[in-house]
Structure formats: C-alpha cells, structure tokens
Amino acid sequence: MTQTVLSIQHLQKHFGKFQALSDITFDVNAGEVFGFIGPNGAGKSTTIRVLLGILKASGGQATIFNQDVWSQAVSIHNRIAYVPGDVYLWPNLTGGEMIDFLLKLNHQKHTAKTDALIKEFELDPKKKSRTYSKGNRQKVALIAAFSTEADFYIFDEPTSGLDPLMEEIFQKHVLALKENGKSVLLSSHILSEVERMCDRIGIIKAGKIVETGTLDEMRQLTRTQITVATQQPLDAVAQLAGVHGFTPDATTANKATFAVDTAQVGAVMSQLADYQIVTLQSTPPTLEDLFMRYYNAEGEGDSHEA
C-alpha cells in the first residue's frame, strides 16, 4: 500500500478580497518526487507557505505525515527540510557558519557529507554572507538541506540563480534522495528540470490545480509532431482525423509537417505508409507542450505574489 506523506484537499487562501488559492488538491507519496509547476504568480509559494505553517489556510485541509500543517507545524518541521527560492542570510556570518546554524536549527550536525557538498557546489565557506551572489546564497541553503536527514524535502524554485552545472548537481542529489526512499515536493517553472526528475506533476493556474498525473498520462493529452516526405502527394493527409496544422514544405515536394492527436497516431501512420514514406521524423509531446496547453496567450496566471 502506498504511503501518503503530503495530502492537500481543496486548499484555499485569501488575502482580503484577493483569492490567492481557490482549489488546491494533490498528494505526495513516500519515495516520490512531485513536480509543482506554474509561472510566477500562480500560487506555488503561497501553497508552500501554508504547508510550512507560515500562513493559515482560509479553507480546505493539508496534512504532512497525517498531521495538520497549522496546528502541528513544530512536530512536522522536525522531519522536513526546506529551501526557498530567495535565501536571506545573516550578512556578518560566513557561509560555513550559516550552514552550521541551519543544520543546528534542524537538530543536525556538520558531517563529512556537508564538506563533500560544499566542495561539489564550489562554495567558499569562509566568505561573509554579505559578499555572496544570489546563486551562492542558494547554495548555502541547498547544502544545508542535502546534509539534513529528513523524510520530506520541499524545494521552492531552488535553482534560481544557479548556473547549469550547479543545476545538474542539484538534480543528481534530488534523484539520490528518491533512490533512498525520501519524498520531494519540487516547485519550479523550469520544465526540463521537472521532466527529468519528477514521477508526477501538478499544474497550478491562478490558484487552482488544473491537472495532475504522471508525465506519460499527461502526454496522452498532447500531440505528436510529425515531419514526413513521401513519394506521393500528401494533400489528403490534412483531412485525416486527428491531424492539425498541416503545413506543406515550400521547398520540397511531397513533404509536410503536422501535429497528430496521440490517440490517432497509429491510424495516421498506417495511412502515411500508403504514400510510400521516404523520410519521417516524429517528435513526442513534451512537458512544455502540455504546460502551454494551459498557459496560453489568454492566461498567464496573475501578477500577484507567487
């Protein structure tokens, strides 16, 4: 039986007349990396602040380890690690001192693993925090989090300010957490990051979860892009069920590009074979395709606090 670490049911949060969260419902299971995606302003950080007991929900319910996130926040915090998207440090403490302080707050100790993480993330722990760039401040929090022995890790836009190499290191350590049976909630708008690491995702738009599921399940909702060249004219392909955006190649005869609904790919491919295929390129749907299905020109979420 799958153990549920985080359970959110119809969570709501309003600030006066502004409804920041209107309906947030999803679960995170043991040993799972759950991607929580949406643009800035959609409600990701507000949701996480409710989970951390920083904000009190206006409605609905949220539990971590079957404990209420508001009334039992202290108990919950003993078993979680958290990295925000913008880390603030005491300016006169060194990076090393800040890491040790953050570890002590979680009743943890500086270990050989901490030293290895400092080296891997290329952080100079002797410099004062006030001299750190945004990326280095993120490194301090990430090193402390990955050094912490927790059951549930919450990352809210954790790679903001990191260069691509450091992002790779972050991803490696998240996957290591998963291999060790830990649970991770990853809030991000970097779709490639989510696609690589997450078992399931939830898409939030304007304070509401609009889709949850595995990437394979969600890809069934999007279209496969096909570019094909054949020996016979392709004009009739445009009329096939499930074909969209049929565009003939302006420079090559009997060549075209179009999208196909996932459910119709088999039938369309059978039809294409009758036209004597010369070359064919098929591009499966990506997380970005799915994301843009919900975030189009008509609604990018709102511009309020995330």
From TrEMBL:
Alphabetized PROSITE patterns for the sequence:
ABC_TRANSPORTER_1, ABC_TRANSPORTER_2
Cross-referenced CDD domains, in alphabetical order? ABC_DR_subfamily_A
SMART domains, from UniProt?
A: AAA (SM00382)
**Pfam families listed in its UniProt record:** ABC_tran, DrrA1-3_C
All copies of the ABC transporter domain together span 6-231
Question: Which SUPFAM superfamilies does the entry link to?
Answer: P-loop containing nucleoside triphosphate hydrolases
Alphabetically ordered keywords of this record? ATP-binding, Nucleotide-binding, Transport
| UniProt signal peptide | none
Q: Which domain of life is it from?
A: Bacteria
One of the record's GO molecular function terms: ATP binding
Specify the protein name: ABC transporter ATP-binding protein
Q: Which organism is it from?
A: Secundilactobacillus similis DSM 23365 = JCM 2765
